[in-house]
UniProtKB/TrEMBL annotation:
Superkingdom of source: Bacteria
Keywords of the record: Plasmid
Organism whose genome encodes this protein: Rhodoplanes serenus
Name of the protein in its database record: Uncharacterized protein
Length: 66
């Protein structure tokens, strides 16, 4: 299983994009560095609609909040 990256909105933790990590290139996917960041994880990215990034970690969200 290869590493994956998530691009997320810093203020909401909402996942904007995801894909396979290529060391050194993940940050190239960040369009607005002032409001976005990236997180690399080992394994497959879960459904981006079911997770948020909180304090640099993935967190499952309650589906009723969507």
């Amino acid at each position: 299983m290869s590493a994956q990256y998530l691009i997320y909105d810093r203020s909401t933790g909402r996942v904007i994009a995801h894909g396979s990590c290529e060391p050194g290139y993940e940050c190239d996917q960040v369009i607005d560095p002032s409001s976005q960041d990236y997180l690399c994880i080992d394994g497959l990215v879960p459904d981006p609609e079911t997770v948020r990034v909180v304090d640099g970690r993935l967190a499952l969200i309650d589906q009723s909040e969507i």
